[in-house]
Amino acid sequence: MNKTNKQFPLVVIFGRANVGKSTLFNCLVEKQQALVSKIEGTTRDSNIGRVNWQGKIFKLIDTGGIIDLKYLSKNSKLFQSASPPAGGADSKFNNDIEAKVQQQARDYLKQADLILFLVDNKTGLLPQDKQMALFIKKLKLKDKIILTANKVDNIKQLAKTAEFHKLSLGEPMPVSAANGSGTGDLLDIIIKKLEARKIFSIDNQSRSIAGTINNLISVCIIGKPNVGKSSLLNSILGYQRVIVSPIPHTTREPQDTNIIYQNQNIALIDTAGISKKGKKAKGLEKYGISKSLSALKKSDIALLVLNISKDITHQDAKLVEEIVERKKSLIFIANKWDKIQEKNTKQYTNYIYAKLPFAKFAPIQFTSALTGEKTIKALDLAIEIYKQRQKQLSDSQLSHFLSRVVKLHKPAKAKGAKHPRIYELKQVRTNPPKFELRIGAKDNLHFSYLRFIENRLREKYGFLGTPITIKIVKGRNIYGKYGKSK
């Protein structure tokens, strides 16, 4: 966790389960990023967002709720060590999902510049709150605390916040994450305390603001449950950003991590596994799948993670369809390569393309998230593919290209006896690339010829890993607009 990017000050939301941490997080970052539910322990991986207030930027982290206070009390030394024990009586702490949630929360607490200790004004002061306050004091983090009383939805509920003075953590700051009241005042206090601690660096802030303006490559890590998506993210980052477990659907919501690699801003998004249930899924699993597809829609590039030690399935093919239909660039991540004894990349490449023939334009990267083998190569590919998505071909380039292609292979007719005439090929947009092919008003072109042109475009100009759209427009263009015929 010491590798977390500290370009921004770090503010951590901390508290017991169901006090409204995720709701407050969404309110402060001004988007519905964190999954909100009444189910205890809904948040597993800590959500990370960015807040810009009064021209200052800080990173906000929503941690999972602390549930097993008796266990933590018994093992309080875990909070003072750099990492939990590797085995023995406390090995459960490494393997249990909820223990990992709490371990992750602890690690972020140790890095925090400020901590929003969130309590629930409606339920009032509970023994769990008192125990957590003691943990905070044992960690010597009291000076970083902003005690925040959530669910103060109206002025009548304000008086009840007085009981939280018993925690001896200062004046409780009343807010309502649900309706936003008091959050502006809370942000003012956060900025004031960060400035008092001299956390903000003018150079860092100016570079950070510039970084938000520069091109950002959005990379979505997607795939079926348990193919190694979260392990891939952790391997790329070099630290345990997200919780990994053999239990399906450990990841419940997309997890964004912004990094700078090769001087390029990249947002890596780890998504919940998309099972064959799809729309028939229920509860948190259904919500997780919906959020995964939403994350894909907002991305530039998809890393489709395949468990190469197992057969490619119909579900993998459906995911490729989802990616291609949305015109997203694609990289196949053939993960768990360490499990393959005879590592014949050519044989496995042919196998993948044979099973997924409509995505032969996508490169394949063989990796092992477990050992870290070649996982960083996925970022190199993503940067190259992003450049390819931006490629713009001039009219003269395409005119020469079209002349050669037509001589190589005459346009194939869809119906009728006459070969169609192609007047022009023009690129009308980038990111992703789209072309318009103008033919005669009464001509018909066979769909296979479009595929022929696409393949020749790729041979000549690249467009690595990126879907190409070619739209047919009819009519001679003597007026400068498509559709006008002589």
Descriptive overview:
- 33% of the residues lie in helices and 19% in strands.
- α5 links the parallel β4 and β5.
- The N terminus and C terminus are likely disordered.
- With 486 residues, the chain is α/β, with parallel strands linked by helices.
What structural keywords apply?
33% helix, 6-stranded mixed β-sheet, single chain
Which spans have pLDDT < 50 for at least 5 consecutive residues?
1-5, 34-44, 71-95, 202-213, 242-252, 281-285, 478-486
Most strands sheet: 6 strands, mixed
- What's the gyration radius in Å? 27 Å
Question: Tell me, what's the shape?
Answer: elongated
Strand content: 15-25%
Main sheet: strand order? 2-3-1-4-5-6
Note the run of SSEs as H and E: EHEEHHHEHEEHHEHEEHEHEHEHHEEHE
Give the proportion of residues in helices: 25-40%
Mean pLDDT: 80
**SS-derived structural category:** alpha/beta
How far the N terminus sits from the C terminus, by CA atoms, comes to 68 Å
Number of strands: 15
